[in-house]
Amino acid sequence: MGEQAAQGIDQLAINTIRFLSVDMVEKAQSGHPGAPLGQAPLAYLLWTRHMRHNPDNPDWPNRDRFVLSAGHASALLYSLLHLGGYGLPMEELQRFRQFGSKTPGHPEHELTRGVETTTGPLGQGLGNSVGMAMAQRMAAAHFNRDGFPLFDYRIWVIASDGDMMEGVTSEASSLAGHHRFGQLKVFYDDNDISIDGPTSLAFSEDVGKRYEAYGWHVLRVKDGNDLEELEAAITAAEAETERPTLVVVKTIIGYGSPEKAGTAEAHGSPLGGEEVKATKRALGWPEEPTFLVPQEALAPFEQARERGRKLEAEWSDLLKRYEEAHPEQAADLERRLEGRLPDGWQDALPAFPPDEKGMATRAASGKVINAIASRLPELAGGSADLAPSNNTLIKGSPDFAPAHPDGRNLRFGVREHAMGSTMNGISLSRLWIPYGGTFLIFSDYMRPPIRLAALMKLQVIYIFTHDSIFLGEDGPTHQPISQLASLRSIVNLTVLRPADANETTEAWRVAVEHRHGPTALVLTRQNLPVLEETVRLAREGFAHGAYVLHDPEGGDPEILLLATGSEVWVTLAAAKKVADEGIRARVVSMPSWELFDRQPQAYRNAVLPPSVRKRLAVEAATPFGWHKYVGTEGEIHGIERFGASAPYKDLAREFGYTPGQVAERVRKIMGKG
Length: 673
Ligand SMILES: Cc1ncc(C[n+]2csc(CCOP(=O)(O)OP(=O)(O)O)c2C)c(N)n1
Description:
Shape: elongated
Largest sheet: 6 strands, parallel
Strand order of the largest sheet: 10-9-11-12-14-13
Mean pLDDT: 97
Strand content: 5-15%
Bound molecules: thiamine diphosphate
Number of helices: 25
Low-confidence stretches: none
Helix content: 40-55%
Structural class: alpha/beta
């Protein structure tokens, strides 16, 4: 093929991407045409010439990842998936943004083949991509051997102005620069336009310089329609393996639209019938039919697909030879890819004898991590600069660092948001189970990625310590009141608040076994007694989310006391106090609403008999949500104010969480106060 003809095909293919996207938005009368029009040349070159991917198998473990961080440009991605051979049929493009389609408003991982991560909340995709780079390096360190580069995939990202403005991007990019993630290649669609108008309304820094300061390799493309210039930048990005690369690409939003190019009007609404026609005319495209895919435009995609098949076949050969040369590692890899945990990993879970002095559940969690770490090589995690407080360190393992890519201790720095977002990227590899710790109060700082982990059903484990006012002297700025309720309100997130060390062991068992969704462990700073009851009952009871920890003697219970975490021993002591006065109270330890809600009705009724209407829930947090379990006649011993700075034993007294005060409340409910 002559160069001119090839160029002709490139333009044809690029315009095919453009107008499929435009027609999708127009048909749906909803969506974002501007970014696809501007980004199409870049995306085309990446997808057809550079990315090592095989559309026949989007699960190929060493495929290059593509992340459209600017998720609102989803029409672009759907066009690429359609043309690229990912099995996204034309009918789906024509059902863009409709109920039940594979082409929702923003790309959703697992719903649509080839979508690597769910994007749309700006900044998250870029954060995920840093986690993908982290997972790649960890996988390379763990599995690659001389002559066996099993994991050397790259991560290609398109990010927009909005991505660059969001704080999570700064956190994650700073982390990526620090770690020198050379496999990460980000293209910044620098079109100077966002929703409100020109970005200059609110954004004037030199993004390239910012990234240079982060330690990135920064390139600039003056004209995002100039294929040669783009090609040179992509090639240079490919050649750089020591640092992450940012390519600042100047593009024109809504390129080709006579009236709307370069304006915010092109961003998020259909161009309009007449303007679509004018745009097609301007770029030499037929007005009709819509959703036009000229046969010749498919050729570059078909060639890329052929190359991808070959690349994967070569990789499979490599894997076969690896299986012979390194059978143990190969078996470990195969197990992880199949989503299986190591046999017998649970045998390492520790049991704790009853102990009145006890230990903080955060300390118990640290012991569990260290007990299971050697049996569970895929476990890797850290904390947002609170490792000694969150007890997240795996003893004996180095810190993950450029010189120690095998380190399982991840130092996220004081970057909760990026920690959440990168953990999602790590989890997407399916090779690692990431965990990350911070104080429960700062779960607010990472709520967006928690929600996305839940939406994507990713296994991520959060270690939230200092879980109540009983963290003490740090005071109300650090004392969570509403965070438990707010985490419980996130669909698909399993929240576990263990009552003591043995329940903490069980919490970890649940968290590790829960492969399709995130789990939050909510743990204390202060010591809690190790209860004799949990020694006997937690193993069986905990996984049900709620279980009877104590039943009264001398007849059926007349009141149900529901408690979680640090309030369980207090409630138990209160129940024992009032027993002497003839009040028959059942104590239910309720570490997880979500697990309990999944139990059959018969189990739920057995634990919370509907006939017992006198109920009291005891939790040092907002009462919000507890009515579901205590009913309209029940009461909640909660906190409806911010906390206070004081030693925790004083706070227990001031806020009414001593056994005597809880007993008093029980007496009142029973009319014996
Ligand atoms: C966290 C978050 N905040 C707000 C939005 C809504 N939103 C979607 S796109 C966008 C900005 C658009 O500007 P840009 O990123 O430059 O995209 P372009 O206009 O180039 O398509 C905003 C604010 C979002 N998707 N995510």
